[in-house]
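ok, trying the design again with the full structure, not the truncated one.
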């Protein structure tokens, strides 16, 4: 018998598996250990994480609402100011009167508050609407109980108050080619547009017009008692 054959079955025979190396056995063992350690989230854990996320999101939405309301009010105020400035500049550049209207729920339009600018053609030409813009963000023409007048003191008896008349003179309001803001009879008039989100006095905004010069000034309220420009 060959010497190698005699060693078969001896105490020195370690029974090395045929066809599998030591390195392969080690690799397979480590893979099994790693597989035992890796696991996913349970349904309960996922539900807890989702609930916490929803609570945090709800708190964030509640906290950001006042800031969003202020942004909406400022956007509406800026739109009214921009419309009035456009009317004045167009009157000066076109040498035409530009009629200004503050409308609430006008016919043939979605419910809401609007600013309409119309170039008056006079005896030679037809009137032309040059701008018709809705006030955005749930902001409406409004005043609030106990709300003071602006520092310009043009009156606050109505949301649209010009020449001491709610909604302005019956003859209309317009910018003339010299930049003044007048009634339909050509008399310079002062007035204020008040606006805000319903039932939220802290969102009050105001835009005033000085008739003799056409100057436009905007205000926001602080603590529902004091106006600041």
């Amino acid at each position: 018998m060959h010497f190698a054959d005699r060693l078969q079955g001896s105490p020195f025979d370690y029974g090395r598996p045929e066809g599998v190396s030591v390195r392969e056995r080690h690799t397979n063992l480590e893979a099994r250990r790693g597989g035992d350690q890796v696991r996913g989230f349970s349904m309960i854990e996922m539900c807890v994480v989702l609930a916490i996320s929803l609570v945090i999101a709800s708190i964030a939405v509640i906290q950001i609402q006042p800031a969003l309301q202020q942004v909406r009010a400022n956007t509406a105020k800026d739109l009214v100011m921009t419309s009035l400035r456009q009317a004045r500049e167009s009157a000066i550049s076109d040498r035409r009167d530009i009629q200004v209207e503050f409308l609430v729920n006008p016919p043939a339009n979605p419910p809401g508050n609007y600013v309409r600018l119309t170039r008056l053609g006079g005896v030679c030409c037809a009137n032309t609407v040059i701008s018709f813009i809705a006030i955005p963000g749930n902001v409406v023409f409004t005043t609030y109980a106990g709300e003071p007048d602006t520092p310009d003191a043009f009156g606050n008896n109505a949301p649209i108050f010009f020449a001491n008349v709610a909604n302005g003179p019956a003859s209309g309001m317009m910018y003339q080619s010299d930049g003044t803001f007048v009634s339909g009879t050509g008399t310079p008039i002062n007035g204020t547009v008040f606006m805000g989100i319903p039932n939220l006095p802290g969102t009050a905004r105001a835009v005033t017009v000085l008739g003799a010069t056409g100057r436009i000034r905007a205000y926001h309220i602080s603590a529902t008692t004091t106006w600041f420009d």
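Keeping the full-length input from now on. The chain has a mean pLDDT of 86.
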